[in-house]
Amino acid sequence: METRYTHSPEDIRHYSTEQLRKEFLVEKVFEPNQVKLTYTHNDRMIFGGVMPVEGKLTIELSTELGVDYFLQRREMGVINIGGPGVIEIDGVSENMVKQDGYYIGKETKEIAFSSVSAEDPAKFYIVSVPAHHKYPNKKLSIEKIVPLCMGESNTLNQRKIYQYVHPNQCESCQLQLGYTVLEPGSSWNTMPCHTHERRMETYLYFDMEPDTRVFHFMGTPQETKHLVVGNEEACISPSWSIHSGVGTSNYTFIWGMAGENITYTDMDMVPMQDLK
């Protein structure tokens, strides 16, 4: 598990492109037969990919956590973005097709991931944050989630937002997790942009063609920065940063949030004339 530390807006003011990418971009999220996790000190979120091809994979303990098992003091959300898979939670197995999700509560001891076929392996994206209370585990099937339809074609931001770990689906301590799909012909996510000082966020961009790139915007509204992001790469977005992006084509991304509250609409919108 790789560790990433926190930064203030002043820290990144003079960062080179290379430095900015090193601190905020995770270029390799999925590796065959591996669990690849990143621990960010932004609200102590852990995120990453589990890609079982042959056999089962489990999340091993890291000395950074100081506990007896991974979810002893944490909760976790999972979304499968690959082929059909299976997740075993304390001895109970559940099939997970593409876009199926799962909320796994604090004090869950045994979790194993596997694929139905090595030729079309599952890709489980996970997000875990500290938790103070145990809420029930719950499968979040894509077929049972009604998406929010947002944006317009003339502003190039028509998109569907699938809310997985969210109060209208299940209870959680502080984790929110969802899936946004941009319609063909749309490329902007969240513009006008926003910040939310009360929550940090991570993004996994995927379902992109090899030559498609997303320009992920970050920084303060008065001093914006950007990362150029490829397929199945992830970004860390601190709470003080703007949250926005634009692609060379339509794309899909998973957003994971943690912080002071779980009110999805708690955003501080930034007027277009204030952006620099």
Automatic annotation (TrEMBL):
It holds the Pfam family KduI. Its EC number is 5.3.1.17. InterPro entries: KduI, KduI/IolB_isomerase, KduI_N, RmlC-like_jellyroll, RmlC_Cupin_sf. Its cofactor is Zn(2+). Pathway: Glycan metabolism; pectin degradation; 2-dehydro-3-deoxy-D-gluconate from pectin: step 4/5. The keyword Cytoplasm does not apply. HAMAP family: KduI. NCBIfam families: PRK00924.1. Catalyzes the isomerization of 5-dehydro-4-deoxy-D-glucuronate to 3-deoxy-D-glycero-2,5-hexodiulosonate. This is 4-deoxy-L-threo-5-hexosulose-uronate ketol-isomerase. It comes from Granulicatella adiacens ATCC 49175.
